[in-house]
Predict the 3D structure of the following.
Amino acid sequence: PEAARYVDDLYASIITAGTHLAPTIKVAEAAKVIENSQRDINIAFVNELSKIFRLLDINTQDVLEAAGTKWNFLKFSPGLVGGHCIGVDPYYLAQKAMEEGYNPEIILAGRRMNDAMGAYVAQEVIKLMIQKDAKVKNGNVLVLGVTFKENCPDIRNSKVIDVISEFEKFNLNVEVFDPWANASEVKKEFGISLISETSKLKDNYDAIVLAVSHKEFSNFNLDKHTAENSVVFDVKSFFPKEKTDGRL
């Protein structure tokens, strides 16, 4: 206890936002796990809403903006859930629960929803490509971003790879452009030769998927790299709506 209080005092002298001294290490670890699990479940909920609203031809972001005017609405956005915390910690909690004989339901339901989003995005893009008569078999797809979140070089547990893998099942040629990711790390981890300069991109892709909303992509020239029947799918609702064919 004395050592814990010393550490708490040390951190408190550095962290101006304040600190909280948990009574035990188990409580501290459990708190971290449920914080990430809660966020995972909330994102899973809006991912499910996104699927429903696509079927109803309702813009998900419009709904979330309207709902967000209520003071106690929790604001989350649909998307791919990767990284070394949110996509991992719920499994730790679920495993410990099962070791004690309890089968967690909500936690694992959220994980199933979020882990399936990469394949879902690719399938929705392919549907749009068919509708616009874009080339699917041996077509060219550009994926913008491969890190697990925006403006960050971290590729750990990135779910963008699930989008790419699903495209490859349909014999699509996939190129990945990411100015933040380390090319050698991406090659080692995923076996993908990363494009890091716009000068090396093709003029016309059959589809472009914005997977990660890096700030550099705000100036990306969609018109230069698409044709009339190309599909632009915006996972993050980052591009102007009128420039895209689909969003989560």
In short: The mean pLDDT is 94. The radius of gyration is 21 Å.
